[in-house]
Amino acid sequence: MSAIEELLTNVDITSIIFYIFLFFFAFKGAVEVAEFFYGKLKGFFTTRSSEQNEIVDIKDSLDEILNEIALIKLSLEAYNEDIRDIKENIKTDEEHLLDEIRTTFKNQHHKYTELGMINDSTLDDLSKKFEYYTSKGGNGYVVTLFDDIKELQVVSDAEIYKRENELRKEESTDD
Question: What is the pTM of this model?
Fold first, then answer.
């Protein structure tokens, strides 16, 4: 006979059921005790002190500040790039303006030296342009042209108009 058959013949069924329930309850109790001690040990080793909590909070705050600083740095870099672009555009615009002033002086010089006279408003306008031109480092050609223009006789607009008409009539008769 096997051990199980012997057990079944010597012990009645109610005793077997009783022992089975007793075994399960004991096992369940042992598991609960183990879980209790596991929780206590885990709590002991993972519980941070208030100082450790403050340190973690400070580190988190510093990380947030560093992230904000990084965003500000990116914004500043973008602004600096925009400023560089604006400065380049200003430089290009100033170069174009100086070219335009040179062209204006060339055209006005040709027109008014041919007339032999100039009016006040044109002379004032050219004087302002000349001041700007020289303040931006312009010299040479425009200086010579402006010196010639300043030597012209200053007259009224009506006299300029009259002289232009005379020149047109002379050109038409020459053709």
Answer: 0.55
